[in-house]
Amino acid sequence: MGKKRKKPNYMRGNPYISRKKEREALSSYWRYSYLKTDVTDILEADISKQNRSWGARGYYIATLHVCRQCGKDFRFTAQEQKLWFEEYGFFIDAYPGCCLECRREKRKQKAIKHRYDAYQTEEDGKLSIDQCKELADLIMELFGPDLDEKKRNRYNHMMNRISREERE
Ligand SMILES: [Zn+2]
After folding, report:
1. Whether residue 22 is found in the same domain as residue 93
2. In this structure, are 86 and 114 located in the same domain?
3. What is the whole-number distance in angstroms between the Cα of residue 47 and the centre of ligand 1?
4. pLDDT of 92-102, one tens digit each?
């Protein structure tokens, strides 16, 4: 019986990526040595799609960060990096300051603010009942317990119209 061949130790990183590729991937990250990487998550890049002034990234490797907003650890996955650098056109050195949940929350707040702002030029008396309901929801979502008098009046006005409508 021959000697049992030693299995390659791919499990150290991504089982679908050979040690050679892993080394290559890491070497394409020398400029990012200040970032913590996770070699279990590696993707090959399409460098023709990257937005860069010099030095392409041959691979994306998940990097580990701390969220500026909530302080939680988060991963900037290889898949996300591929999206950022090949689809969204972000500069190749960019990385997110906040975790995905905080980024989503921020986008949601922005969208709510945007919808609320559209009502600022509308006359309240001319709003439909559905618009009154939306505006009331937006005021609550945006200002919640910090309603000032003007906003509280507007909110109450919306609620009065809604309840009047429902009584009829
Ligand atoms: Zn966060």
Report:
1. yes
2. no
3. 30
4. 888 899 999 99
